[in-house]
Amino acid sequence: MGKRRVTLITAVWKRHDLTGLVLNRFRNIKAELADMIDLELIAVGSEGDKSQQLCENHGFAYVEHDNMPLNRKYNAASRLAQESNPDAVYRIDSDDWITSDAITNSLTKIDEGYLAVGLLDLYFLDLPSFRLGRWPGYGFFNNTKRMWAWRNRGKTVGVGRCFSRELMDELGWEIWDQEQELSKWLDTNCDERLKERGHKIKGFTMQQLQTFAMDIKGGGENITTQTFSNLRIKWVKDAKSELYQHFPKEEVDSLIQLSQSIN
């Protein structure tokens, strides 16, 4: 079997300093995987030359689209992914960090027969305070809104979802419902779109996929004061030491500098 191809898609909007660090993480993953996987990088943005230059300077193919509705914006990247003829599409936001194992091991699960793969748990980084904590995911004891969490048990998080080529073909290369106009709840819309076709994203823990996944909060105006209020998060004692174990030192140092600059 020759080199595999995975296309990573993301969407960018403002928060240029943080977005630059995230795009750099994805570019470094591409370099890390170069001997095994041809990782194509696609970003959709909505700020004209500003977002185009940011993305292209980090090695991304770029497509422009109105920021709203978000489902149609993301679908612009999803459709463009077809042109690279990938074995799988990996969807992730522009405020998330992952390690390269997330992609390689998700692709392994796709090869085992799963049509879509996602994570059940993740870390949150509160950028202003530089606090890092693990959220175990949807479950009765992991959220203050317990009945809501119980109804969503087993649901994968939005950070790092991998879709097989077979499923992408079935979806017409649109992961989200193009007819609706959504400003949020994209993960739920995706889940419902798959459910209508008799499919569900298979969830695995970070440990099972041997990866570290982190959602970075506090880098822009789209973050609310209620970000962590309903989640039961286990905060780690030393965020910096934990991050140094999983990511290159220069990347973590840049994230620390960004945290210090916004305080």
UniProtKB/TrEMBL annotation:
Where is the signal peptide, in residue numbers?
none
Domain named Glycosyltransferase 2-like: residues? 40-165
Cited InterPro entries: Glyco_trans_2-like, Nucleotide-diphossugar_trans
- Protein's UniProt name: Glycosyltransferase 2-like domain-containing protein
The organism is marine metagenome
